[in-house]
Amino acid sequence: MKNEEGVLVGVDGGGSSTTVAVVDKEGRLMGIENGGPSRLETMGAIKAKDQISECLKSALKKASQGVDDIEVMSFGFGGLDSAPKRKQAEEIAGEIVPGTRTIIENDAAVGLFSGTFGKPGLALIAGTGTLLVGINGSGDRDRVDGWGHLFGDLGSAYYLGREAVRKSLEHFDGRGRETVLTGMLVEELEMNEISEVMDRFYGRENEAKNIAELSLLVDEAAKRGDKVANSILVSAARELRRSALTLIDKLNMEALKTLRIVLIGGVFNSTKLTKTLENFIQEEHSKANFIRPDWDPVTGAIVFAMKEKKKEIDKSTIRRLKKEFS
What we know:
This protein is about 50% helix and about 20% strand. By secondary structure, the protein is of the alpha/beta class. The protein folds into two domains: about 5-120 and about 295-325, Nucleotidyltransferase, domain 5; about 120-255, Nucleotidyltransferase, domain 5 (2-Layer Sandwich), CATH 3.30.420.40. Strands 3-2-1-4-5 form a five-stranded mixed β-sheet, with helices on both faces. Helix 6 packs across helix 10, helix 6 packs antiparallel against helix 11 (about 225-250) and helix 10 crosses helix 11 (about 225-250). The protein is globular.
């Protein structure tokens, strides 16, 4: 028999790792476990279920709780972009905790709530790829980008890395400005000259990820005063601004008293890019409040579980969650 006053569980399952956290009804952390990836589209249903189950078992053990002690379990899955994937996620949740109240969310929405704690706002997620999600004051949702490196991901780490290579090749051809990125790329990729770059990427596995890793060179070159690298960062910020303003307009969020914008992903480790983006958006929306969570994203899944329980997430609860999950 299920415990009607039991614990709450949150799951953040992404392409690189899985986190499961167990909290009491006030949001006090009781047990947490990290594991490997559980993104449906890359891992498949069986491996994703096994990974989440393993983390859940360990987190419950640390919390001295059992499956029957779970009142609400909130799942944040990566890759819920179609009805079949959502149905698959629901089936997985039902098999992991049969008979338990469950919530199925996209990991992007979990990331949003990790910064807004249930309030309306936008999440700009810019890592290897780019995805923007928003929830307005009426609970309406929408998204922009997230179309992968072939068709989208503007402003992502992949975008930065690709532009670094492209600008270096333009300089090699004599079509573009001189840039220190050329030498940096040659050294990083252990090449004799930049023209060898095609052999490093075309037809290779993990092409997008490997190109995205070159984004760090762009920020470093900009810090050295390289104008080409600086222009790449500004270009990425403009693309992210364009996407953000589009989503704000689609969700009619201009009237919000505070426009919360959560910045998630390694791209925002670039101070230059982040400050440029913030200035661009604040030119249009002076009420924009930028949030860069330094606590675990699984916090957002816990927030969804608490809202399902109709637990008020007041300022003291937010302080507690930030402290518990930092």
